[in-house]
Amino acid sequence: MYELTQRRPQRRAARLGDGEGDLAKKRAAWRRDLRQHWPYYAMVLPALLSVLVFSYGPMFGMSLAFLDYSPVRGFFNSEFVGLKWFEAAFKSPFFLTALRNTVVIKGLQTLVGIPSALLLAVLLNEVRVKWFKSAVQTATILPYFISWVIIGTMFQNLLRSDGALNEILVNWLGMQPISILRDPQLFRWFIVLQDTWKFAGYFGTLYLAAMAAIDPALYEAALVDGANRWQQVWYVTLPCIRSTFITVVIWLAGYLIVGSFEQIYVQYNVSVYPTADILETLTFRLGIGRGQYSLATAVGLFQSIIAFGLMFLTNQVIKRLGSEETLF
Amino acid sequence: MADRKAGHWRDRFTFADLIIVVILSLAFFVTFYPFFYTLSLAVMPYENYVAQRVHVFPSGFTLKAFAEILETPNLARAFANSILKTALGTTLSVVLTIMAGYVMSRRGLRFGRILMVLFIVPLWFGGGIIAYYLVLRAVGLLNTFWAMVIPGLVGPTSMLLVRAYYHDYPEEVIEAAIVDGASHFRIFWRIIWPTSKPIIATMALLIGTGHWNDYFWPSLVVPTEWQPATVILQRLTLNRSLFQSLGLGVQTVHQSFIAAVASCLILPVLVVYPFLQRYIVKGIMIGSIKG
User: In this structure, are A166 and A54 located in the same domain?
Assistant: First the structure.
């Protein structure tokens, strides 16, 4: 507090402005802050370095998208080619398919996922038996902490031609075996539902925590007004978690074009490319697989820009609709 | 319907309650069964596997598959790598992230705003896989064990979560300690850290599971002898010939072995999670509401 009172007269002087003396004062203030608070800055330095190198560093690498890069020639000998790679990408049928798949899959995942998580939370909130509530919550959040590699293995066991699912279909029900992992149409829905399987518990827990913070007096008021259980949910529970929900929606909106790379990468195969090859798996094959670094980077850059745009757009839309729970 | 809390649930178990129980039980079953199936495959003896046509239910119990994992040098080594990577990476990351988040939550810093902007911008823009790979090469981390640990020591999202947690921490406590002559480092370790169990637990779980489950980059930028078990598991699942090349006997069932590897990767998480569960909810909640 003492430091803040000390600074005020300087800030006022700076605002009133008196030329170069003013600038020198500012510089002195910055330097004083460094001297006074150097332990703080020292503590945040590793984090800063980490971010600078591994988050900003790759941003320079994005310039590859505008260069005709070849590992042989190196970075500085590659000529500038403007939007050539972007053009090439848009003309490629693979790209368009991958783009479509990314949006479709992610869109479906969001459409199925958001209501599922919400439903899960609402239902769990209605449960009064502690052990049951706890058991369901723990089970549903578990997949979130398990890597896609393991999930991929588990589901491969279940869905292969001699896996549990087909055993039930063939040996118990006398039907034909189905190959979810190889059929493009089935695989797409499989990916969508599997994503919900993994994340519903996590987001559900989030909403549930928000619901736990609701003032019981609101429920009592609703009861007095004659609301039954479902009306209470509609008029009290849901509105009270609006800010949490909106934050999640905005966050997910940006990810609409950023597909779930690992999920698809560990489980896809050539037969399902038509419906399941997304921008990132394509980038990976082109980039690391075939060494087309520049093209791959261009696609990645395209994704980043659109993702940011989407998030910004959603934020604006929500703002227009009158909420204050926006990120910007 | 009367007050939500009063009375025993059996007294007012309605039809709606029944539907709720059915749906939630279904959710439980659907999320739980795949793990259950994998675990039961992992302990199924060879004879049972071959004898039955149906493997939906567990049958028999043997730890043979797990023993075989220990006897397979590459695999045992891979698990050791996973443990080492997770222990090292998580400890470093948690300490640094919490330190950074704490600093960023303090309001008297002139450079505070600039730092915030610096940390937030990467949330919106990524560099892409290729660019990241090139950075790793430039810093000399390519093809080393450390490529799995050093990058991303502090992720912006984690840091923001920690910052939200410390946002309301009273400045007076810190100032009193300064008056008493303590340095900022001392304050952090003696006062802040011991009372921050919830956020430490949350970070440890989130970062820890992230490291334990890490698959993609380790498969690309780490030499084979340092690769974690997740990479080996993926290769096994996709590639039967790798299975043979590990030199396993005829009596080994492909499925059981893979299931055993997967189980080894799942069980630690299953074991740790219940202990940290109460902190998680709080941590996620604080991070997303305030973040």
Answer: no
